[in-house]
Amino acid sequence: MKFVRFGSLNKTDYKQAKADSFHTPPSRKGIYAFPAHQVEMFLVAWKFSEKNFKEESRIARKEFEYDGYVWHHFVERSISKHIIGSWARDDIHSYKKILAKVIGRDKAFRSRNGYGYSKDSYEVFIDEKI
Question: What range defines the domain where residue 19 resides?
Answer without folding.
Answer: 2-126
